[in-house]
Amino acid sequence: MGFRGYLPQNENLSHTVNTRVYEAQIDTVAIVLTGMPRVVFVTTEGASTRQIKEIVPKIKVSDITDLTTLPPTGVIITDGAADAIVDVCQSGYVGGFDTSSLAANDVLYLTTNGNLTTTRPKEDFVVQMGKVATVDASNGIIMIDQQVYPNPERYYGGLSVDGNATATTFALDTLTQFEEFDTVEVKSNTVPSVAESHIEIEKDGVYEVHCVITATGGNQKIFVFQIYKNNGATALDNLISSERVVQINDPATVTLSGQIEALDGDTLELWIISANGTSVTLTEVSFDLNRIAPIP
């Protein structure tokens, strides 16, 4: 026999208060526990298992990244082969688990493949399955109390420079990245980098991008400013300026603003190009982004 947890009982051998359990049949693929409960959802009706022809539901493991496996309907506390009948706990206390690496009252979230984690996932909603009740290497107890709510995490960040005197130089008609940022603005779950002159995304989504540029020293040449993704690999066509004449002693102000889709790991940069100029100084730049929605 594989792993087997248990349902804590009162002195009269009844289940603890508010424990809710139902029988279910494992659908298609065996579910094996690795020291902690596994989160499951109902897929369809199962087979008749009682003389009175009671129908039990079939279950598979839930996954926070797969909406077709949500919402969960509880946790299983024993290993089960395909088609096996197991108990599913919807709420209450389950015991017999290794909680030695956790602390009492640690919150447990659904992550991938039916597993639990103390790290809140990055998805736009959170499935909180319960908390650690007691800490023990083999007899830890977990309180199951499922809650689903919007993820309160926010994703924003920025780079800036004020008072820059270093010119950006480039060959004609050659896209060149601006690399004179010196300040990381307030950030959350993004990685603005002065060294790399980019902002790295840490979660897929729709982002509002805003970049304000003050340029001078252009010797009355024409320049175009644009935000690109991934080291200049992808142009963002709604974040490109019109052709701007930049004079030596009359600063030009350029604003780039719009919404873009970006993926975890993408980077955003500011680039410059000119057909007749080879040098321009961006004395002030404010480059910010804020995640506003999931990708449709």
Write up this protein:
With 296 residues, this protein is mainly beta. Helix content is 0%, strand content 52%. The strands form three sheets. Strands 12, 14, 15, 17, 18, 19 and 21 form a seven-stranded antiparallel β-sheet that branches. Strands 10, 11, 13, 16, 20 and 22 form a six-stranded antiparallel β-sheet that branches. A five-stranded mixed beta barrel has the order 1-3-2-4-5. β6 and β7 form a beta hairpin. 30% of the residues are buried. About 2% of the residues have low confidence.
Topology:
Blueprint: E1 20-26, E2 38-48, E3 55-61, E4 74-76, E5 85-97, E6 107-110, E7 116-117, E8 125-134, E9 140-150, E10 156-162, E11 168-169, E12 176-177, E13 183-184, E14 190-193, E15 198-201, E16 205-216, E17 221-229, E18 234-240, E19 244-246, E20 252-262, E21 267-273, E22 279-293
Parallel strand pairs: 1-3
Antiparallel strand pairs: 1-5, 2-3, 2-4, 4-5, 5-9, 6-7, 6-8, 8-9, 10-13, 10-22, 11-22, 12-21, 14-15, 15-21, 16-20, 16-22, 17-18, 17-19, 17-21
